[in-house]
Design goal:
Blueprint (H helix, E strand, L loop, with lengths): L6 H7 L34 E9 L8 E2 L4 E7 L1 E6 L5 E4 L3 E4 L5 E4 L7 E9 L7 E2 L2
């Protein structure tokens, strides 16, 4: 038996995660992974949203750098250790989220001897802005 769908109701439901499905209880399962207010977001009229996949093999280290914008790290596997100037090291594990702050010099490492660290990076920047700037 096919369920009849009210178009107005379906469109309004997009705001709360309702989906269409063959089952009576079709709803998107939304789970908030992280929420954080950022005061250092770019303020130009046009913005570019970027989503990157990154992998650090065992022993890999990023260059010493900073970002012009906050970068959200969502770990898929392994552990990513961030060393941010003036702070204790942060160990971000699979399933965890960390927001790298703007204008803070840092390096990231995979300290594991045998497991890659894989992650998805999300950020908003002015179009064509570099992902990172070398730090002195």
């Amino acid at each position: 038996m096919q369920k009849s769908i009210d178009v107005g109701q379906a469109i309004a439901g997009l705001a709360v995660g309702v989906t269409t499905t063959a089952r009576e209880t079709g709803a998107a399962k939304l789970t908030a992974l992280h929420r954080e207010v950022a005061v250092t977001m770019p303020s130009a009229g046009a913005q570019e949203i970027r989503v990157l996949h990154a992998r650090l093999d065992p022993g890999d280290r990023t260059p010493y750098h900073s970002h012009r914008h906050p970068v959200t790290v969502y770990m898929l596997a392994g552990v990513f250790t961030l060393e941010l100037d003036g702070r204790e090291p942060v160990h971000v594990r699979a399933g965890e989220v960390f927001v790298e702050p703007a204008q803070v010099r840092m390096t990231g490492r995979n300290l594991s001897a045998d497991e890659p660290a894989t992650m998805v990076l999300f950020y908003v920047s002015e179009p064509d802005a570099p992902f990172a700037d070398p730090a002195a």
